Task: structure prediction
Amino acid sequence: MNGNPAVHNQWSSRLAFMLAAIGSAVGLGNIWKFPYITGEYGGGAFVLVYLVCVALIGIPVMMAEILLGRRGRRSPINTMRELASAEGASPWWGVVGWGGVVTGFLILSFYSVVAGWALAYVVEGGFGAFQGLDGERAGALFGELTASPQRLIFWHSVFMAMTMAVVANGVRSGLERLVTWLMPLLFLLLAVLVGYAMAAGDFERGLHFLFDVDFSKVFMSCDEAGLCEFTAEPVLVAMGHAFFTLSLGMGAIMVYGSYMPHDASIAGSTVMIALADTLVALMAGVAIFPLVFANGLEPGAGPGLVFVSLPIAFGAMPGGQLFGTLFFVLLVFAAWSSSISLVEPAVAWLTENEHMSRRKAALLIGGLAWLLGIGSALSFNLWSGDEYKVFGKTLFDIKDYLTANIMLPLGGLAIALFTGWAVSRRLPEGELAMRSPLLFGAWHFVIRYIAPAGIVLVFLNAIGVV
Ligand code: PFF
Result:
């Protein structure tokens, strides 16, 4: 794609589309969030539910988003509105696009703070701060960073500026080409970490934690007195994470689909994107949990898990200073190629409707998300007290929870219903152009019934109705 991704531009090839989509999907969700929520929600059974959600809901919904985008060839707001009116459905479907824009803002406003941690750790690693760390000192290093509003806001600002520079200058193709080289490198480094975890971590215990399916461990929540009761929340979080990690439910993949060439296979691309994304998450888990157990860390330690466990490994392995720095550089790049997709639905809309330049759109969106992000940064220090919490959650937690577990699945539900019910069967049939009518029939059944019913059931379950 050239430097001005106006609405009707296209990726130069299927490969370019795939790389952009993988760039969007693989990010902090895989390496930061997946391990920490898996730790919080008890391991194997949670992982299994997440995998089932990816296969049964994530992949079909991703196909729907891409096909709608490619058919509409406009920003998600206008794509939804125009496809709806062309198919005789209500123009209110445009609301789905609006929801996506708001969700993208909210996600970026905490994503950028976590990406800021990774930036700070590039510097820490470069100066050798990981050398000889034990569990306690690694915890202190992370604690010092998050205790400082200045440092968090500084790095959050740097990351936001990086994101907006790419959005404003339309040099996305450049970043994507770079990511083509860097993602395999990230993969390689994860493999090195897995090797290290095998040699120096409590590998067996890590694997058992990740892959032993014990539903009672995940679905029983116990208080200090040892009183336990059934909780459906982990299922909601696992489903929410399937949406988050695949960048689904807010139009990000739809907008990328709108630049996709017509002859590329949507089903094939989707499966590859989902596989790549899942593999990175599982590798991160396999690298991290053996270290967590070997170093006496708490798997449920929360958002700092990765930033505490991996530096211990880097501090002890040969060449760790280089590997450690490089790892966080790569993590920043993975986050960068995700964050630009978070704002693309909004930018695409502003440039096509308001005839705004990309530069202005980037400034407007970046400024707003930056401001919102200050609250996320303060959630770890000045605003971490109980008086600032709602339902025991800080502003950061609330944004994370609300977007991933409620807003993205709601967006996904709407997209599934729209594709399955509001438009005629001919639309997806033509756009997917699958060779096997049977396979198409199966997908259509899933998008009409299984995916929506699954999402609704998980919601009802979480609020205690079923
Ligand atoms: N998929 C990204 C990750 O796993 O880090 C996060 C994300 C990007 C979510 C883009 C949603 C989105 F639209």
